[in-house]
Structures are given as C-alpha cells and as structure tokens.
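Chapter summary example: a protein plus 5'-deoxyadenosine.
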Amino acid sequence: MKQLDHFTPYSIEFMQKTIDFLMREVKTFHVRTYGCQMNELDTEIMKGMLENRGLTPATEENADLLLFNTCSIRDLAERKALGKIGRLGKLHENRPVIGITGCMANAKKETLFKKVPYLDFVLGTNNIHELNAILDEVLLTGKQPVKVDSRFEHELDYTSAKRTDPVKAHVSIIRGCDKFCTYCVVPYTRGPESSRHPDSIVEECKKLAANGYKELTLLGQNVNSYGKDKPEWSCLFHDLLYRLDAIDGIERIRFMTSHPVDITRNLMEAIRDLPTLCEFVHFPIQAGSDRILRKMHRLYTKGEYLDKVALLRSIVPNVCLGTDIIVGFPTESDEEFEETYEVMKAIEYDCAFLFSYSQRKGTPAMRWKDDIPEEVKEARLQKLLTLQNEIYTTKREEFLGKEVEVLVEEQNFKDDSLLKGRTRCWKNVLFSGEKTHIGTLQKVKIHSYSHQTLMGELIAHNPLSLVI
Ligand code: 5AD
Ligand code: SF4
C-alpha cells in the first residue's frame, strides 16, 4: 500500500483513505501516446481492450484511468513524458489511476515509482496483453505492480483495436530488433525480433479490407527481417507481401522501417511487381562516414549502402527514398560529418528525419563520452536541414503541372472545402473536393505548393473507387 505511506498506519484517516482507494471506480480512460507508429498501434490495441472491459474514452482532465504510452528513443522523449506525468500528479486531488506503458516502462521499470511516487503501475511493451489483469491487481490490492517481460511472446487482439483513421491502418508484423546499433535502446526496450504468424496477418488485413480500409502500413522495427526468426513458416518479408497484395480491396501497402542490410533484391522486385506496394522505401543511412558507421554497428559501409540504393533505383526507377540521420555521434569529426552531408546531397532523399545524438543508458555507445558539444550538433543539424529543404523545393517544383494519384484521407482541418491525401510516395496533397471522395483514389493535377504540401485540382471525379 505504498501510495498511502504518508498516512499514519491504522489511523482513521489511513483506514478511510485505504477504503476510498480500493473502492475507486474506473469507468473512463484516456491514453496519451508518445513516439513511433508502433506505439500508436499499441495505443489503439489498449483502447480496444479497455473498451471491451466496459470503459469509455474521456478527456485527460476527466478520465478515471490515465495511460502514458511512452517512448525512450531520445532523452527529450522521456523528459516530455515525465514532465507531463509530474504536472498531472500535482493537479489531481482525487487523482485517477495512472499507468506507464511503452518503452520507458521497459527501460526504467520500478525506478519509475521513485520519479513518480503516485504512479499505480508499469506495463512493458511486451505485456500489453496483461493490461486488464494489471488494472484488476491495482484496483483489488492497491499494490504498484510492474510487468516488463524482455521478449514478445503473446498475440494481441488486433481486431478489437480502436482505429480512428477510417482509410489507413497500421498492421504489426514483427516486433523487437536484433540489430543492436550501438546508440539505440530498442533492442533492450522491445527485446529480440518476434515475427507474427502470416496467417494471422493475412486474416487481419482481410478484415480491414472488408471494413473499407484502403491503405495498410506494415510495422516493425525492422520489417525486412520478417520471418527469419521462424524458418519453419517459410515466409520471408517479400513472401508475405505477395500474400497481402492478393487481398481484394486494399489499394496501397507501405512498410516501416527497414534496415539497409536486410533490403533484398526479392523485396526490390516485389516493389516493382506488386501493384499495391508503394514505391517508397525508408532506407535509413544514419551517417556517411565508414568509421562512424562501424562505431554505430550499422553493418554496412557507405559504398555498400550506395550500391544498394543504385540497385534499387535500377529495379524501381520511380522509387522514393526516406532516411534517418544522426549527427554528433561520439567522436564524429567535421570531415566525417561532411561525408554525411555529401551523401545526402548525392542521394536527394524524398523524406529525411534528422536527429542529434542523444546518449541512452544501457546502450553500448554509453562507453564513449558524448563529446560533441550541443552547439556543434545543432549547427550540423541546421546544415542538413537547410540542404534537405533545398532538395524538397527542387522536388516539389518537378511536380508542377504533373498528374498524381491521391488516396483521399480527410477534409482539411482549417478549410473543409479542401481535401487532404497522399501520393503513393507519401507526398501530402491538398485539393478541393467533396467529403464523399474520402477513401477513394483520385487523379489530381498539381498547380502549386506551399511548405511540405502540393496543391492541385481534381482532374476527373473517379466514382469507381468510391467506397465510403
Ligand atoms: N540518439 C539520436 N537519435 C537516435 N535514433 C535512435 N537512437 C538514437 C539516439 N540515441 C534515431 C535513429 C533511428 C530513429 C528512429 O531514431 O535515426 O533510425
Ligand atoms: Fe534501433 Fe538499429 Fe534496431 Fe533500428 S535497426 S531499431 S536503429 S537497433
């Protein structure tokens, strides 16, 4: 009964507070999500589990149960979540039940109770199936349970996931990561790779198609490793893609994220040959210097990476590429950073996520001093951002006057006469149209652009693909 430690044991006040605590009724919930798409999907699954239990969604201020589905990838992500939880605790006199889930649960485990004394439970990324059980334990005993398994072993109820987007759905195909890049916490917070059975994936995707979903994004820390941990299934990533492409009603399939060493010729040919598979590959290079790549344990050299990009571009000439880059990795010299800059310039990525190195407890890179001053990291980041913005502008100009295929996702937030959608290569497009176009594929002619968005005009209303 740790939460009640500040009351004198067995005093009337203590007894009353104990009774109040144990009689808390939990009827409503709110989940706040930090981090990647995998966390967003886990949140949708947890919402489904809570609604199946009879709870209803509520605002953060009114919920009886608050879940923080956290991220540990960089220090800032953790600080944001802890700051928020800290502020909430102070605000609530009759506070809600509070649980921390996600990567921070695995990274920090019971030490979270020291940082957040009024926390009720800690539930790791591999224990989502136990959400309702841990909630029962809290409500029945008033204990502060911690469940953080090191590997993912239990199937989840994906079909009950509470999806808010009616057009696009995330589908988990593999969890965990065996790559052990020296800067990264994921292999420790999510554990080893664990592929989901292909039959279960196909069954879920068929149901999504039957419910009107048009675009699926297959998720995993390294989707290209799919099936390698289960050779008895004889189903590698490209085999799975052929099975999913055959499902009626799905217009587009995407996948996130890839490790360059596992991108195979078979996968490249699947992108070329499968009509649903979008010509977009997230191909994270992380750094352009061979010494830094070795120190990061990325398992490829710059030359090998460039060869693979060239092979992909020869097989799929219209492919678009995305990347992640870390600047300021320990000991990165100015010259080594310039190599990253030059690679970025040479490849001209369609999408780039740029990060400053952030030291993570428990990772192999902790053995090196975080020796690049923050202002140097910031200057390197700005230099890459400027370059990337120039590349974006050139690429957007190339779209002017061209026709693109857009999957219409929603009305524009600010002006509902405008519709928002994306091209197969993940470019945002705005154009005027009807609400009934949502969920359909439309041809749009691009006439201008602003910031990251292409603006265009509907060429001809395409009623054939009307679905919702
Ligand atoms: N510091 C900075 N960026 C990181 N990433 C992962 N770990 C760190 C870290 N310690 C970035 C990588 C990865 C992306 C998801 O986050 O670029 O691809
Ligand atoms: Fe982290 Fe590397 Fe695995 Fe990506 S491939 S999740 S960066 S360890």
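Key point: The radius of gyration is 24 Å.
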